[in-house]
Specification:
twelve-stranded mixed beta sheet; about 15% strand; 12 strands; alpha+beta; about 425 residues; elongated
């Protein structure tokens, strides 16, 4: 029977190919949506795992996470610098690292931070070392800059009238190992350099703070007070002096209990907002899940249309093969054999289509994940789970039931009537 089925499919290869393509495309749509949504959840969750607690000014918690964890550019409100001084001296905290941003180089964000954050969130260096002077920088694994390269920070985008800080240059001294996060595409420099290059310092903190707030609101570079870095200045990371306003501080509590206490403490005063990134991502996942539901309904609709088309094709196919079926019966083929041939042919075509659909869907999800990673630096793990296996088996069971209808039509045909037709 198998040899007869294969020979029949070779003879009707064009129609068979159409059926396989229809099934494959309908299946691929649902598989790609499922895999991509799952990859976004896993990738973003793993990226946020490295940051236990974020302290920032009151405002949008979602934007605070997007800017601090995923380095999405935005004008965050500033909180008082003494918050960092208090956090750095807190015995419940392993390390507290301020971050400052606003500049970029060749599309890569320049992030001011501390050696504690670099050491606490990476597995070390693939080459080079940690920055030790104000004018040194380390780059993420996704930044295509060699050791010794010069980085001239630009405020704003080149296509939007951005201005290069021509009198300030960083030198790349190290490249960190991949982390699978947005920080792989970042250029990390001492936070003091970011403060100094934007004219922030102890002697004119209030004036510069007002100028920066005015710049954030108006978006005009001429209102922003500029300074320059001292490339050979040593690092200062004790933060026991006056500190400029900060958009965020990334905090590593020593214990889970300390994390919850700190979160409560820095939410109660009204001047700051402490958040767990995972909690914010949960609300984002809800929105993402709603979008996935809509897309899945679209996929189910496409699959239903394909199923209806396949049923029509199968019925027409059986009607066109009346003489062949009659000949098989006339030569002594039992009804069950005829049923099995028609049923097996259709099931085999659908099975091939489902398999191809899973392959195409996986490839599409991988392609989209690659584009997302290249743009954001966040690695999206595209992978199948046991649920996907259950889905494939469900498809095949439905296909087996659907194939039984045209097979039953062939089963009921009498050889005399078939040969007369």
């Amino acid at each position: 029977m198998i040899r007869f089925v294969l020979a029949d499919l070779r003879r009707l290869w064009a129609a068979s190919l159409v059926i396989v393509l229809l099934v494959a495309l309908a299946t691929a749509l649902g598989v790609a949506v499922t895999l991509q949504e799952r990859a976004l959840r896993l990738g973003s969750a793993r990226a946020a795992d490295k940051f236990d607690l974020i302290v920032g000014a009151p405002g949008s918690e979602t934007q605070l996470v997007l800017s601090s964890v995923f380095l999405q550019p935005a004008a965050l409100p500033l909180m008082p610098g003494e918050v960092l001084t208090k956090l750095a001296a807190d015995p419940r905290i392993a390390w507290a690292a301020p971050i400052g941003f606003g500049d970029n180089f060749q599309g890569f964000p320049i992030v001011g931070t501390t050696t504690a954050l670099v050491s606490g969130t990476t597995a070390g260096f693939t080459e080079g070392r940690m920055f030790a002077l104000e004018g040194e920088a380390v780059v993420g694994s996704g930044v295509d800059l060699p050791l010794g390269a010069e980085v001239k920070p630009m405020h704003g985008a080149a296509g939007e009238g951005g201005e290069t800080h021509a009198d300030s240059v960083y030198t790349v001294v190290g490249k960190v190992q991949p982390t699978g996060t947005a920080w792989d595409r970042a250029i990390l420099v001492p936070i003091q350099a970011v403060w100094h290059i934007h004219g922030l310092g102890e002697e004119h903190e209030d004036e510069a703070h007002e100028a920066e707030e005015h710049h954030d609101e108006a978006g005009e570079e001429e209102h922003h007070h500029h300074g320059r870095i001292d490339a050979d200045a040593p690092l200062v990371e004790d933060f026991d002096h006056d500190v400029p306003g900060l958009p965020a501080v990334l905090v590593k509590p020593k214990t889970i209990a300390d994390a919850y206490k700190l979160r409560q403490e820095y939410r109660a005063d009204g001047a700051t907002r402490a958040i767990f990134p995972a909690e914010v991502l949960t609300s984002l996942y809800a929105t993402l899940g709603d979008a996935r539901t809509v897309l899945m309904y679209v996929a189910y609709g496409a699959q239903a249309l394909v199923a209806a088309a396949l049923m029509l094709i199968a019925v027409i196919h059986v009607a066109q093969r009346r003489r062949q079926i009659g000949a098989l019966r006339a030569f002594g083929a039992p009804r069950l054999a005829v049923f099995g041939i028609v049923w097996l042919e259709l099931l085999l075509l659908v099975a091939i289509g489902v398999g191809a659909g899973f392959g195409v869907g996986y490839g599409a999800a991988e392609f989209m994940a690659g584009l997302f990673t290249a743009q954001s630096g966040v690695r999206l793990p595209v992978e199948f789970t046991a649920a996907d296996g259950v889905l494939a088996v469900t498809f095949l069971i439905v296909a087996a039931l659907m194939a039984a209808l045209p097979a039953a039509l062939a089963y009921r045909q009498s050889p005399v009537e078939a040969l007369r037709g």
